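Dock pyridoxal-5'-phosphate; give full complex structure.
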Amino acid sequence: MQRIEVKSLLLGLKCRVCGTVYPPRKVQICMRCFGPLDPVYDYDKFEVNKREIERRPKSLWKYIELLPILDRSKIVDIGAGFTPLIKAERLSKYLGSSLYIKNDGLNPTGSFKDRPASVAVSKAIEWGDRVVGAASTGNLAAATAAHAAKANLECYIFAPASTEIGKISQTLAYGAKAILVEGTYDEANRISHVASEELGWNIVNVTTRPYYVEGSKTLAYEVAEQLGWRLPDHIVVPTASGALLHALHRAINELIDLGLVEKKNVKLHAAQAAGCAPIANAFMKRSTKVEPIENPNTIAKGIAIGDPSDGDYVLKVLYERGGKATAIPDEEIIEGIKILAKLEGIFTEPAGGVTVASAKRLIEDGTIKPDEETVLLITATGLKTMELIEPSRDQVIKIRPSIEELLKVKL
Ligand SMILES: Cc1ncc(COP(=O)(O)O)c(C=O)c1O
Ligand SMILES: [Zn+2]
């Protein structure tokens, strides 16, 4: 039997607005209309069957046909992907629906950003770039820095000065240089664009943008595979720039078009923090255009992006699929973190608290029915944002080291 070569089926990049197709080169946006570019693949050549995919090593790279790296030898792999999908029995009972948790906090650097970072840094190597970087609210910084370390590349991070110290320390540990900008994420992002232009640095979410987002599609492929090649009814997605939600939308369409799963209208829901909810605000008004927010103010700093680059496209996906957008206040975010930890033993950063609190609201308002299946994306660990849940005095008991002392304490 002839062995089929396992490689990317990437054909080129297609403009989301005017449809112009470009060869798969170093282009960031459509040169005709400045629209975003999405990779297109030679789907007719997709010949791998489900059993073979299941047998491949448990990594995001098992879906190489649908990822944009042409030279396999350039892949930078520190073990991202194939994180557990867990049936959340206690949380399901508590909230009154059938819930699964995709625990992406278990990626190598503790967030789903290892997926796009792995793809982007691999692309940088393919292009022969020696300097990479990222504009980040913290998680992409660490993910890019870790992959750059593995590939022996220089790495520069642009992040708001208010980014959690845990995320910055982690980024520095991988050997990257952190440039902390006194301002918002959007301001840090603007400077990173200039650095990409003027200094030639490969800023992964700027220079490599059309390719980078492809890594996030693997979250949807994995959910389908882990459910036994089925799609859930709903996915709740913590949303900042909107790149993740839009990538999931494309991945679900690909799974259906390739015949890997049966057709189903999966409702994608955008979960935002009330202190930075440009997409949810537009959704409430049934608008098709996002109005940027100047000064985000929420404990969910990881998803505090006031001017989301894929915002309008997220709105389109929500309207098309019948999904909703929610804006969650900080108290509910903390409550979400706590119930996930106490009921399922999973500790998340605020972005995951937003997901849980959003699911609660969607179940309460009848959007998610008791008999439907929902996947909650827990996109990062809580270990990087410890300062948010400082223990109160009545939670911690201090004693001298004797059993008499212990017996004296009212537990
Ligand atoms: C933990 C976490 N979840 C979700 C997101 C949202 O991703 P996106 O910007 O693709 O909407 C981010 C973005 O930084 C994040 O850090
Ligand atoms: Zn165009």
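Observed: The domain at 85-110+214-389 is CATH 3.40.50.1100 (Rossmann fold).
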